[in-house]
Write a structure and sequence with these properties.
Helix content: 40-55%
Largest sheet: none
CATH class of the domain at 5-83: Mainly Alpha
Distance between the termini: 74 Å
Strand content: under 5%
Order of helices and strands: HHHHHH
CATH superfamily of the domain at 5-83: lambda repressor-like DNA-binding domains
Length: 123
């Protein structure tokens, strides 16, 4: 698979031990922030210009590009991706810690029991 510009950028940045430590500590939020920033810069847009395209504030774009921000919504990420001619892809990966995955096959305690309507005729 061909590397994207972002992949190349990230690979270069990961040569810096300080960057690598911050990247690993911040996890997914850092990854999302870096991708949005890189895509926006590749498009030649400022935060203010991207905000105008999305009909939001520059401060909101700044939050999305912050590694400490953890309030990303899928709908906002889709809007950003569309404006930057990209697509959002969400991947669930198994945790490799030796534990098994449990799938809820029975109803949890939150399930509501519904009673069947009475078929008795009222006189």
């Amino acid at each position: 698979m061909k590397k994207t510009n972002f992949d190349q950028y990230l690979e270069e940045q990961l040569h810096d031990p300080d960057f690598t430590a911050r990247y690993e500590k911040s996890g997914d939020a850092w990854d999302v922030a870096l991708q949005i920033t890189a895509l926006r810069q590749q498009a030649g847009l400022s935060q203010k210009e991207l905000a105008a395209l999305l009909k939001t504030s520059q401060q909101q774009i700044s939050r999305l590009e912050s590694a400490s921000y953890k309030g990303h919504s899928l709908s906002m990420l889709r809007r950003v991706a569309e404006a930057l001619h990209a697509k959002v892809r969400v991947v669930f990966e198994p945790i490799k810690n030796g534990t098994s995955v449990h799938v809820a096959e029975t109803q949890g305690p939150y399930a509501v029991k519904r009673s069947k309507p009475s078929r008795e005729k009222k006189a």
